[in-house]
Amino acid sequence: MIMSFAGTHTALVTPFRDGRFDESAFRSLIEDQIAGGITGIVPVGTTGESPTLNYEEHNEVIRVAIEAVAGRCHVIAGTGSNATSEAITLTQDAERMGATAALVVAPYYNKPSQEGLFRHYQAIAAAVKFPIILYSIPGRCGVEIGVETTARLAGTCRNITAIKEAGGSVERVSALRAAVPAEFEILSGDDSLTLPFLAAGAVGVISVASNIIPKEVRDMVALWQMGDTAGAQAMHHRYYPLFKDLFIEPNPVPTKFALALRGKMLAEVRLPLCEMSGANEARLRATLAAL
Fold it and tell me: Which domains, from first to last, does the chain contain?
């Protein structure tokens, strides 16, 4: 039976204190997620500032996440790289540590062809047994995992079972849904588009906003799944300003600022990211206060 990732998964931030991984704040954040009824967590994805973590830190964050969760929800480890060999090693490490699945972003910067993308993911899938979730985010990677490539991977690699779609196009969700097997799952990668994506055939979200409002994002998705479209729409409209304002500066800078306002962690990020401008801080404060 294929494992389902329907529901709400949180793309977790990685808390820092004085330049180092803040394990205590991270564990507390995970407890808040589980209390909010989240389906799963995603450590060391884009929101987890994975490009700034060294190899040892990367695996340490995943290890702590798995230990803290203790089987209470999915742990989908971010293991992507623009070098196939490195992605294989990180994915094997995550499987060995006990992660539920791996989220593997498209190779960035080197802009492979669709055939190169296919071979990249095929090699990773062949190196492990647990589920792999593709991650297409062309705005960051400079390359999109094509619809035909996704369908080819779904039909060729039994453990490639889902895609996180962050291309900003509802039409692409419809195209994917028509091209891939019925059991292959599509997850929204954009909070502001989760509801339209669900309407087009997605089954859930890997969310940034649920770092701050896990129960609310979980409830919005659950309402849709239960057929309460009006209830889901009402929650979407209520939280839409937050969904947008968490991206007024590069992710996860606004999310960390919001969590710091609640005393959950420091707002510290690693260069080349930096703190928010004063004007954007004021805007996000006002949005949070309105909620």
Answer: 7-228 (3.20.20.70)
Q: What is the pLDDT of residues 254-266, one digit of tens each?
A: 999 999 999 999 9
Tell me which amino acid residue 224 is: W
> 110-151, pLDDT tens digit by residue?
999 999 999 999 999 999 999 999 999 998 889 999 999 999
Residue 118 burial (C-beta neighbours within 10 Å; 0-12, 13-18, 19+): buried
Provide the 3-class DSSP secondary structure of residue 95: helix
Choose, from 55, 109, 129, 164, the residue flagged as catalytic.
164
CA torsion angle 21 24 27 28 (round to 10): -130
Instruction: Report residue 1's pLDDT band, with 50, 70 and 90 as the boundaries.
Output: low
Can you list the pairs that 238-241 forms with residues at least 24 positions away whose Cβ atoms lie under 8 Å?
238/291, 239/191, 239/209, 239/213, 239/291, 240/192, 241/287, 241/290, 241/291
Spot the catalytic one: 55, 111, 121, 135.
135
275 with 255: CB under 8 angstroms?
A: no
Cα–Cα distance, 287 to 246 (Å, whole number)? 10
Residue 164 annotated to the active site: yes
Q: How many CB atoms lie within 10 A of CB 241?
A: 17
Give the Cα-Cα-Cα angle 237, 232, 204 (nearest 5 degrees). 110
pLDDT digits (tens, 9 = 90+) for 24-48: 999 999 999 999 999 999 999 999 9
| Residue type (1 letter), 160 | I
* pTM exceeds cut of 0.85: yes
Q: Is 108 a catalytic residue?
A: no
